[in-house]
Design a protein that fits this description.
This protein has 180 residues and is α+β, with helices and mostly antiparallel strands. The protein has one domain: Lipid/polyisoprenoid-binding, YceI-like (Lipocalin), CATH 2.40.128. The chain is 16% helix and 47% strand. An 8-stranded antiparallel barrel has the order 1-2-3-5-6-7-8-9. The longest helix is centred in the N-terminal third of the chain and has 17 residues. It is elongated. The relative contact order is 0.18.
């Protein structure tokens, strides 16, 4: 009897440890490159794969470039073109990193936890270090993580007349949100 109780306790404990890694296929990444001259360069991708390990702090997100939707189809066409994102050759953006002090996020206690994420973003085959402040919100057993950061398009080899002419921000805001 004691042996079976011990085995059950170990199974439940192992389940609790493994449950610390959360994964989703419906995270959202928003890309906002609007300027005072043009409010159109905004896009959203709601089919982003994301994972967070609340034991180690490891985070990873992967977004298909072609799944960014713009309100103007012409802008979407330019976004995916060879001289911009070149989505045929570089079909995805990735981000891998770590949440600093992840142990302060209590998955069993509702609340809003301020976080900092440090990692590497890869766009068009170019990898650059990126840091962002974010939040982890725990409510009713669900966890929502979000972060907002600015990237320099030039750092990733993205240049051109729309940027130089002020129609597209040189440092767009990228917002990530995922519910687990």
């Amino acid at each position: 009897m004691k042996k079976s109780t011990l085995v059950l306790a170990m199974v439940f404990a192992a389940g609790a440890v493994f449950a610390q890694k959360k994964t989703t296929t419906s995270a959202t990444v928003a890309f906002d490159a609007t300027t005072p001259k043009d409010a159109l360069p905004k896009a959203e991708n709601k089919t982003v794969i994301g994972s967070v390990d609340f034991t180690t702090g490891d985070v990873a997100f992967e977004a298909s470039v072609k799944n960014f939707n713009f309100s103007n189809p012409k802008i979407q066409e330019h976004f995916n073109a060879a001289n911009w994102m070149n989505s045929d050759q570089f079909p995805k953006f990735t981000y891998t990193g770590k949440i600093d002090k992840v142990n302060k996020v209590k998955l069993n206690k509702d609340g809003v936890y301020k976080t900092k994420v440090t990692g590497t973003m890869t766009i068009k085959g170019v990898s650059k270090p990126v840091e962002a402040n974010g939040t982890a919100t725990v409510a009713g057993g669900k966890v929502t993580v979000s972060a907002e950061l600015k990237i320099k398009l030039e750092d990733f080899g993205i240049t051109g007349q729309p940027i130089d002419g002020g129609k597209v921000a040189k440092e767009p805001i990228v917002t990530v949100s995922a519910q687990f």
